[in-house]
Amino acid sequence: MSGKITKHNLFSPSRTKTESKAEQSDRTARGIVKAETAARDQKTARLRKARLEMEREMALKAPSEVPKKQKITRSKQRDRNAKL
Questions:
Q1: What is the pLDDT of residue 49?
Q2: Residues 37-76: b if buried by 16+ CB within 10 A, e if exposed
Q3: Nearest 5°: phi and psi at 19?
């Protein structure tokens, strides 16, 4: 080291109070956003898993289990119209 030791060449310049405050706010905001993103991704994965499982169960159900529409004969249709 050449020359005289002073506070300017011995220590690195300290940050101003506003810079430190801005960095702290930035760090906090980024942490909050990161936590929210992680929570949203976990929820999306959980809901996707539940939906896929539900779709798989629906596909496994036999088509005979699904109730069929009843055909309305003309006589039944006339009876319904007469009640109206």
A1: 97
A2: eeeeeeeeeeeeeeeeeeeeeeeeeeeeeeeeeeeeeeee
A3: -65, -45
| CA gap 53, 47 in Å, rounded | 10
Q: Distance between CA atoms of 45 and 51, rounded to whole angstroms?
A: 10
Enumerate the domain spans of the chain: 12-83
Please say whether the beta carbons of 9 and 3 come within 8 A.
Answer: yes
Q: What is the largest CA-CA distance in the chain?
A: 114
Mean pLDDT by 10 residues, the chain (84 residues): 71 74 92 96 97 91 65 72 69
